[in-house]
Write a structure and sequence with these properties.
Blueprint lengths: L1 H13 L25 H15 L5 E9 L8 E11 L9 H11 L3 E2 L5 E3 L2 E8 L2 E8 L2 E4 L2 E4 L2 E10 L10
Antiparallel strand pairs: 1-2, 2-9, 3-5, 4-5, 5-6, 6-9, 7-8
Helix pairs in contact: 1-2
């Protein structure tokens, strides 16, 4: 409950931090050695996602920039990625991190790309689009049943990627 209140207070503030340099770093470049510009809107969104995930003390959050490809049929594009991981036990009782990120998109007028949404036992995958930026999120802590007992992975992993995709260009088309 405390985290929910904190997110409600912090998320609007975080949109003002586009140029603050949270989790800066580059890990990929253009194959010909030329660096492709990362769209500013994508970078700002990644910084906001990273800041939301950094609220969870159990998660280590890493941000990188470079070529991003998360869907099978979409070509690599310059963008940014967020990887958050840590022990699942550190998230117990909190708002699930993927749901906090989904709430960011829903609360800020992003349009969900339903064809890329899926939920499994303990995991999720979704995509949102706004102003020519497409952000894709997937991960969680896999859960399963064995001999009538419920089990959950000890490790939580969430990956997000944001790229520039012209409005009207559907994910899945090159």
């Amino acid at each position: 409950m405390r985290l929910q209140r904190l997110l409600v207070l912090v998320v609007p503030f975080l949109f003002c931090l586009y140029g603050a340099g949270l989790c800066e770093g580059k890990d990929a470049s253009h194959p010909e050695g030329k660096s492709q510009p990362i769209p500013e809107k994508a970078t700002g969104t990644c910084k906001t996602i990273a800041a939301i995930l950094a609220v969870y003390p159990a998660l280590e959050v890493r941000k990188s920039e470079g070529a991003v490809q998360q869907f099978q049929n979409i070509s690599e594009r310059p963008g940014c990625r967020i990887l958050a991981f840590g022990p699942t036990s550190g998230i117990s009782g909190e708002v699930e991190p993927a749901e906090a990120v989904r709430g960011l998109f829903q609360g800020d007028g992003w349009t969900e790309e339903i064809r890329h949404s899926a939920d499994g036992p303990g995991t999720t995958s979704f995509a949102f689009r706004k102003n020519g930026i497409l952000c894709m999120v997937s991960g969680g802590a896999h859960s399963w049943m064995e001999d009538g007992k419920a089990f959950t992975s000890e490790r939580y992993e969430l990956e997000a990627g944001c790229v520039s995709v012209p409005d009207g260009t559907a994910p899945g088309h090159r």
